[in-house]
Amino acid sequence: SQTIHQWPATLVQPVGSPLSLECTVEGTSNPNLYWYRQAAGRGLQLLFYSVGIGQISSEVPQNLSASRPQDRQFILSSKKLLLSDSGFYLCAWSGLAGVQGSQYFGPGTRLTVL
Amino acid sequence: AQRVTQPEKLLSVFKGAPVELKCNYSYSGSPELFWYVQYSRQRLQLLLRHISRESIKGFTADLNKGETSFHLKKPFAQEEDSAMYYCALNQGGKLIFGQGTELSVKP
């Protein structure tokens, strides 16, 4: 079966510090991978998605970047965090191993920027 | 532009009452729609999709192309249905989510 992991679960960082959030998927090959930010009352906003190693599409201009160094690894980064980067970040995968059109979500990372 | 709208931020009902969570969409094509649910301290997970036309945990959702709606319904709400519900539209493999509706089922 397929599983998706995210870490850390929670993170408190000062403004201006770097960020690295990691997401890994097990039990499937060549998944599509996604990073979302979930804000209260604003739903889920797609930040990045990737259809393969090194292939990243950005959905919204922002202070964040994403990378996919391996088939089942997706990383969300920032060189200098802003207060507005605080939020709940979700990673998701989709692919042939799952239900068509559906995405499967990780447990999320709660980021607080002080 | 493609969009998903959930007009209610919070819906509160009593146990045993019918519940309907509204979802409207705008999409220039044949839509593929989903409902996702997030229970307290659990992951966001797929509840149902319109293609399968199934009932999950007593919930159903019918696609109404004329009204561009995909409302989620359950005839008798249970306390364990309390959760955050998101309607989503598949756009070329990417999901566009609504703002979410928090359902609170009171005893």
Can you describe this structure?
The complex is a heterodimer of chains A (114) and B (107). Chain A has 114 residues and is mainly beta. Chain A has strands at 3-7, 10-13, 19-26, 32-39, 43-52, 55-58, 65-70, 73-78, 87-94, 104-105, 109-113. In chain A, a hairpin with a 2-residue loop joins strand 5 and strand 6. Helices cover 0% and strands 46% of the residues of chain B. Chain B has no helices and 11 strands. Chain B has strands at 3-5, 10-14, 19-21, 24-26, 33-38, 45-49, 60-61, 72-74, 83-91, 94-97, 101-106. In chain B, strands 2, 5, 6, 9, 10 and 11 form a 6-stranded mixed beta sheet that branches. Chain B has a 3-stranded antiparallel beta sheet with strand order 3-8-7, with no helix packed on it. Chain A binds chain B through residues 32, 34, 38, 41-46, 49, 51, 59, 90, 94, 99-108, and chain B through 6, 9, 32, 34, 43-46, 49, 51, 86, 90, 93-100.
> Largest inter-chain interface?
A-B, 24 and 20 residues
Order of helices and strands of chain A: EEEEEEEEEEE
Radius of gyration of chain A: 13 Å
- Total beta strands of chain B: 11
C-alpha end-to-end distance of chain B: 41 Å
How much strand of chain B? over 45%
Low-confidence regions of chain A: none
Share of helical residues of chain B:
under 10%
Number of strands of chain A: 11
Shape of chain A: globular
Radius of gyration of chain B: 13 Å
Regarding quaternary structure, how should these chains be classified? Answer: heterodimer
Number of helices of chain B: 0
* Alpha-beta content class of chain B: mainly beta
Outline the low-pLDDT stretches of chain B.
Answer: none
How are helices and strands ordered from N to C of chain B? Answer: EEEEEEEEEEE
Main pleated-sheet profile of chain A: 7 strands, mixed
Estimate the mean pLDDT confidence of chain A. Answer: 92
Q: State the helicity of chain A in percent bands.
A: under 10%
